[in-house]
Structures are given as structure tokens and as C-alpha cells.
Amino acid sequence: MAEFQTREGKARFKIPLIDEPCFTYYKIIGDIPGDTPPVIIAHGGPGAGHEYLLTFADLWPKYNVPVIFYDQIGCASSTHLQQKAGDRSFWHEQLFQDELDNLIDHLDIRRGFHFLGHSWGGMLGSAFAARQPRGLRRLVLASALASKELAIRGTRLLRDQMPPDMRQALDEAEEKGEYDSPSYKGALDYFHRKHVCRADPFPPAELLPAFKNLSEDTTVYRTMNGPSPLTADGSLNDWTAIDRLPMITAPTLVYNGEYDTSHDIAQVPFFELIPRVRWITFPDSGHMCHLEGHGLRERILTVVGEFLTQEVLDTQ
Question: Where does the AB hydrolase-1 domain start and stop, copy by copy (predicted)?
């Protein structure tokens, strides 16, 4: 990411049944308020933090689109709530929708904004957009998932393509509940390199903060997703936005990678049910395609930048 003048802050976020003060950290690249609607960037994980998405800071100098990054509650530079580890009733979609609404109001941008959500951030974005929130102009669902059930099916398809010894290691770890064995970690590393981020060398420097955030505080990821991308048993397992997708009125860009953990089967409902939508699958790319080489970073930035700034959008 090029060096731009940034503004950082924390938005106070009142959570019912939490007595301590809570805050959402945010970082702004560009001029707010200004003539151009900003784009809010929501990270995945849950719990990965915003740093791995800083590629999109270039939307400001290249397309004059201000960019708002934020760390969702429970991770990175926002308030951590480790006392809520394992509390499936606490870590749910509505908490993060409330946080997003609170941030929008804190920044006073209801007059107009875009939203880009990556992975879990895209899941949140689809549910948020289905409410037709005041001010939402355009929506980008980046390697998102229409439902957790479809996501699990897609992961199973990718697992089935792995070498037999790795599949066995995964099955044995899940059966015993032991996820620290060298064989399990080896299979997970293989999966990361093929499907999560295909950058060489791996991992790219931009991805290291996300790994750090996820390993130093496992509260949100472990409770909502599970022990790893290959083993899902968290509070999101019954999550779906499929029945809400027809209510999205904002023009929507959907994209994923050819080898993405967000498999095509989890993108189809977006394309079939969102009224105004485009879907792009980038060849030879994974879940973090905005961090990968061979011109992918530049291509994705161009596609997103042009989508956010073009005046007229065609329907599907």
C-alpha cells in the first residue's frame, strides 16, 4: 500500500449486557466528507482485522473513492471480549450489523456510501444490504458466501481433491478433536497455499497481520466458525442470507477466485436472486486474490474501482 494521509479513530459502541466501554477502531483514507461516497471495507475471519485488505486503499488515489477500514468488535485494534469465548448466543450476525450501523452514524455518512465485504465481511454485507439501509449506493461481495451450508459443501469438494494422506489427517483430527498434530497442520498449510492465498512466496507480508490476529485471540473465529477453515462447527453453521437476497436493491458486484475457498456453489444464489448483479470469477486465483501476483491485484482494483464509479449499471 502506498503511503497516504490517514485519519484514525474509535467509535464508541454500546453492547447490551456488556458493562465495559467498547470501541470500534477505524481508519480513513481520503476526504470525508467529500464529493465522492466512501466505501466501507469489512474484513473476514471473523476476527482477521482490516490490515490484509489495505490493497483497497488505492481506490482513493486511483478513483477518488475515500476508503474506510475498520476492525470488527472482538479483534485487532477494537475492543476484545475474551470473556465471551464460546458464547454462541453473543457472537451472531446482529451484533455486527449493529456495530456497522453505529460506525456509519458515528462517521455521519448516511447521505451516501458503498460497502465492500470480503469473505465473512461479504456475508455480513449481504444481510446488511437486504435491509435496504439508507445511504447504501453499491455493494461488493468479495469471495463471500450466500449460506454456511453451501460454504461447507464447497469446502468438502475442495477437501475431496486433496491427497489421501491429508484427507485422512483431517478426518482423524476431527474425530479426536485434536488439531495440533503435524499431519493436520501440514494439510492445512497445503489448503492455505492452494485455496486461501496462491501468492508465491507464501504468505505475503500483507497477510501476516490477519494470521497474527486470528492466533493471538481465537475468541471470535473459534466461536463463530470453528478450529480452522476446514472444520466448521461454530455459531454461523446455520447462517444463510438466501431468502433475503431478493431484497437487495443496491447494484451488486460479486467476485471470487477459480480455486477460492468460497466455491462457485456458494456464489450462485447471489447471481440468481440479487436483482442487479454481476459475477466475475478470476482465473488461477484463491480466496485472497487481491494479494496475489500475475496482475491479479491490479485487475481486482480496476474492476472494483470502475464498478464503484461508473454512472450507469446494467442489470443481470
Answer: 37-293
**Model pTM score:** 0.95
Positive or negative CA dihedral for 262, 145, 233, 80?
Answer: positive
List domains and CATH numbers for the chain.
6-309 (3.40.50.1820)
pLDDT one-digit tens code per residue, 285-298:
999 999 999 999 99
Is 260 designated active site?
yes
Segment 55-94, tens digit of pLDDT: 999 999 999 999 999 999 999 999 999 999 999 999 999 9
Q: Given 114, 118, 192, 287, which residue is catalytic?
A: 287
Q: Look up 50 and say whether it is catalytic.
A: no
CA 297 vs CA 75, 201, 230, 255, 289: distances in Å: 26, 15, 26, 13, 7
* Cα 262 to chain centroid, rounded: 11
Catalytic residue among 43, 71, 114, 119: 119
